Amino acid sequence: MRQVSRRSVLSGLGALAAAAAGGAGFRANAQTSAPRFFRIATGPTESSLFAIGTLLGNVVSSPPGARECDRGGSCGVPGLIAVTQSTAGALANVDLIGRKQLESGLCQADIAHWAFNGTGPYRRNGAVRNLRAIANLYPENLHIVVRRDATIADLRRLKGKVVAIGEQDSGTLASARAILQAVGLSERDIRPQYLKPAQAADGLRDGAIDALFEMAGAPAATVAELADKAEVALLPIDDATVSRLRGANPYFATTTIPAETYKAIGAVQSISVGVVWLVGAEVDEQIVNGLTRALFHPNNRRILDAGHPFGRRIRQETALDGVALQLHQGAALYYLEAGLIN
User: Fold this and answer.
1) Model confidence pLDDT, tens digit, residues 299-330
2) 232, 172 in Cβ contact below 8 A?
3) Nearest-CA neighbor of 223 among 10, 48, 36?
4) 212 pLDDT above the threshold of 60
5) pTM of the model
6) Rounded mean pLDDT of 239-264?
7) How far apart are CA 118 and CA 100, in angstroms?
8) pLDDT digits (tens, 9 = 90+) for 74-128
9) Domains observed in the chain
10) Which residues contact 317 (CB under 8 A, 6 or more apart)?
11) CB under 8 Å to 110, separation ≥6 — which residues?
């Protein structure tokens, strides 16, 4: 569902004419100037956020002296080198951008909405008002993995169990808390473990953990490896729980993880949410315009398609789907010119 309004998109676009006029000069000088580094906060190294962030870095980078795009070289931002940084995940990325410690990061759309508006987990500490969006990238699915011998048939039976619900400041943890609340549970009702995905998988395989949550695109590498080595199942999220969840969090969507996505596991109903590339409002609009152009440059399509299965899902036609906060001025200019907003 496309949720970007003309009003929110156009807010703050008064300087775009100057950016467009100055863009040619920026491009011409970039090949001879010192490199400009641009950081992308992602997630744990084993996560899809890290893999996609690395892929984005490859697409948008074009170091000084690189062969020009129309001559078979890089079609990234001239003079720019993107650096992928591993973090705990979405909440950490929002914090880093909010503190202006990193230029950009990946984040689930629900968390971006909460942060920008000061709701949900940001109600206490307040809104992060310098967040801006570049693009919606791809959907992530909530995986709730249980050991088959743990006798956990539904979400309510997680009560009293040892459950890995994501490390602190991760998108997984925020989604796990929302799901638990939707079924009438809290962290006090379970024995929570705050672990990285690989650590959680090891614990579940070894019998130290009964269940784990992971928000990741399907197939998630950690879950796939676990299913290959242990007797596990995915808990479904029933319609009533989805309805309660979406009442407070409309940016979750009902989805199905298809049968045999993971070894010996049938189709399971779950929830999904889009991953959004966020950037600080203070980042130069010419840079962000260049990032957006590079992301959707036709010559970069093969890099996205070959680089990662989720890279194939990064499409211009879905770039504004589920984006529920203001676009960065540089990105908005690209979408205006592309006819995606008017």
Assistant:
1) 999 999 999 999 999 999 999 998 989 999 99
2) no
3) 48
4) yes
5) 0.81
6) 90
7) 18
8) 999 999 999 999 999 999 999 999 999 999 999 999 899 999 999 888 999 899 9
9) 6-139+275-338 (3.40.190.10), 140-273 (3.40.190.10)
10) none
11) 120, 174, 175, 178, 249, 251, 252, 273
pLDDT value for 304: 97
Measure the CA–CA gap between 279 and 40, rounded to whole angstroms.
9
Residue type, 38: F
**pLDDT, tens digit (0-9, with 9 covering 90-100), for 10-62:** 444 444 443 343 333 334 344 446 889 999 999 999 889 999 999 999 999 99
The chain-wide mean pLDDT, for the chain, equals: 89
Chain centroid, CA 68 distance in Å:
30
Q: What percent of the chain has pLDDT over 70?
A: 90
The secondary structure of the chain, three-state, reads: CECCCHHHHHCCHHHHHHHHHHHHHHHHHHCCCCCEEEEEECCCCCCHHHHHHHHHHHHHEECCCCCCHHHCCCCCEECEEEEEECCCCHHHHHHHHHCCCCCEEEEEHHHHHHHHHCCHHHCCCCCCCCEEEEEEEEEEEEEEEEEHHHCCCCHHHHCCCEEECCCCCCHHHHHHHHHHHHCCCCHHHCEEECCCHHHHHHHHHHCCCCEEEEEECCCCHHHHHHHHHCCEEECCCCHHHHHHHHHHCCCCEEEEECCCCCCCCCCEEEEEEEEEEEEECCCCHHHHHHHHHHHCCHHHHHHHHHHCHHHHHCCHHHCCECCCCCECHHHHHHHHHHCCCC
